[in-house]
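[09:14] KT: can someone run the structure on this one? pasting the chain below
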Amino acid sequence: MPPRKARLLPGADGSEFDAIEVEHPDELPRFIDWALDGEGQKQGYDAFALDSWAMYFGRKHRETLQAVRSRTGDPTAQPTADELQNDQMVYQEVLRRLCVDSGRHVVITDQIGAKGREDAEENEMGRVLPMTTGGLEYFVDVMVELEVRQDGFEQVHVARVVKSNSPHFPVGLEVENPSFADFLARMDEAPQPEPSPGVPATLPDTAPAAPEAQPEPVEPTLDDLLAAAEEHGISRAQITSAANHYCGTGHLDALGPDQISDLMDRMTARYGEAGSDASSSDATGRAEDRDARPSKARANGQAKDAAKEAA
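[09:31] RB: done, structure tokens below
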């Protein structure tokens, strides 16, 4: 904790937790050693919270940057790859002690690095970014992003899981106004794996009979399609036009089994099963309609004949 911040938290008087204020980043490893191997063991801590990693890492990285610029006399100098690697060894040792050696639940807050022009320039130069150098993302099992959302007239704090090594916290999970206790409770409430199917105590003497093979459905042929079309009162020309539209071919003899089945299914969906009463009545009705309604050419011819007789 930074100076004079931890003491402001409710319950920091020891009634709920102990708050330790770290004034200088170099003190953090000593506090970790005290909690894991020193007198801090007597406190029986079950969980640790570090607020924040950016406070420790940012100040340590700034010290390295200032040392490089002081040594070179260049106010824009950057640490070399070897210097960044040496710092990374220090950072990862702190995280290893806290996250691995402790064996406790650990919560670490951090700040999302800026995603502006500076990061783009660093990536173009092939340098190790400070965010990557810290190595925090390699030690945590569950990483969540916290944001404040406006819900009507209220503000809601939402934690969204962005990285997870635990089945209790799938990536994309969102928790509103979360606390550490909420995450621990979710671990207890996680669904258990499904039990394997039961095995009979004794195996049967004979193997169960294999199920009878079902006959494969017979694909309709072109003759079946034409016969069904005739029952529905559909001409061959209409079938050819439909084949050209739906199957991309104007030659009925070139239709494949799948294309014939597709046309047959369309015909059944539109007119019903061939041979049914409804289908026959529809076909008869369409034929009667064609007979009852003369074509335009025939109507014109009848009109001319009537005019001649009148003259």
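[09:33] KT: thanks! The first strand starts at residue 47 and ends at 50.
[09:34] RB: yep, looked fine to me
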